[in-house]
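Methods, example record. To illustrate the input and output format used throughout this study, we show the complete record for SWIM-type domain-containing protein. The sequence lines were provided to the predictor; the line carrying structure tokens was produced by it.
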Amino acid sequence: MEDQNIFVGQEFPDVKAFRNAIKEAAIAQHFELLIVKSDLIRYIAKCASEGCPWRIRAIKLPNAPTFTIRSLEGTHTCGKNAQNGHHQASVDWIVNFIEERLRDNINYKPKDILHDIYKQYGITIPYKQAWRAKERGLQAIYGSSEEGYCLLPAYCEQIKKTNPGSHAEVFTAGSDSRFQRFFISFYASLHGFLNGCLPVICLGGIQLKSKYLGTLLSATSFDGDGGVFPLAFGVVDEENDDSWMWFLLELRKALEMSTEKIPPLTFLSDGQKSIADAVKRKFPSSCHAICLQYLSESISRDFKNSRLVQLLWKAAYSTSNRGFKEKMAEIEEVSSDAATWLQQYSPSRWALIHFDGTRYGHFSSNIYEFNKWILEARELPIIQVIKRIHCKLTEEFELRRSRSSTWSSILSPSAEKRIMDGRTHASTYQVLRSDEVEFEVISAERSDIVNTGTRSCSCRDWQLYRIPCSHAVAALTSYKKDVYAFTDKYFTAASYRESYSKEVHSIPDKLEWSRTRLVRPPKFRRPPGRPEKKRLCVEDLNREKHTVHCSKCNQTGHYKTTCKTEVVQTTQQF
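The corresponding predicted structure is encoded as:
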């Protein structure tokens, strides 16, 4: 940065540009400035190092905003050693330095800011200063957190205006209208879910990291090709029993608004009690399964044994009681503690053989995939998080609608591949017909019974995926039956196209919004700076606890200010 030179006669568009240039030069050349005089028409400064003769004077040209350097006296004798921090490297200066980088990368970390400034200018700034600059930079680009909450009611009105049939509401608490909850489900999502997607809903939440924190609650489904299909989402000030009960109530309202009869549903979640209770209350006829990915990650984290994870998945996929019991016995042998831990989750909520509902082959939730959409935006104001989801929805619907228009197959690509693989295996099977609907299919390893009337096979794959397994394909093709006619409608290309048939419309710029009502941010806010880590000291754990003593009643366990004993004071009169 030694090329940041200034010279007599150099001109600048205005006083602000000049000040920025001289500040940049001071930082780049490692000397401190001492400003003698600075106003709108003149600027005089010298080197802050005592005895250094360097001095600069600039003035404004008459009848123009242009600033020009009139004199530049002396050369630096100070050694230019202002490296450990620099007075001119203010928060505002750092904001200017990182603004473009922040636009490209929201997760530009303070430690990376420190590294880049040191690399480019050779100076070291405090971590706290970099953190503040990032906060101020994000606010300059994306607006303040307070403004984000204030814009929510108008944003909801715009959603309902540009996307008729959408369900969007803001809920506040208290007389001062503090933000409490927000819910949105676009009409395109509601229509696509009810007319094309699998009747499976995944539930989950992710913590936001903006100034006022909060949690994003989401409901997603699967399209006929296995892709994540966002159905609804909301933001709550705090994730608890009430917030999940509210979220599922709003979800039910949104579904009832779009259909006369809600289809039988299967829910997938991490199994937390808040979600389980809410599903049971708001969707009493549905089935609720625990995400197997969550279970496997939990057992791996707690017991550090990959063998346990493998056995868990095998137990979940077991197609007979005997097979399930064998795998559970193996888990017991590997770790009795793990077997005990697993008992807190009923097999009826994660094991195939015991689950009453239909998961269409999906043992794990896709909520984590949806959360990736906003992972980088979690530090932004709430309105920006919602806009990110809105934009991503618009892009994905358009992309998938365009892509599916080129398909020539009857089923979606993944379902079509499953049928093709089934045909390959079926060519080696022998089929014996028992009656009109029942068949025995014999392979080199085993014999399976297929019933085309109940759409079932003893291997249970047909019931699990709702796509004919290789044994069913063999039975159907041997008697000239259409395999596609025995595949659930959700996997057809037509259903996939219907899922994305409606557009997610964009909304006008906020300058065109009309402010309907004021919503204030929640009272709770994130503490400034890096979160403190609580560390337990062994000596502290072994140290005897301090016993408090009341000076009023001479008892232990409380102080004088909290004493409830009345002490009668007697006075002696002399």
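Annotations derived from this record:
Residues 19 and 43 are 9 Å apart (CA to CA).
The two ends are 89 Å apart (CA to CA).
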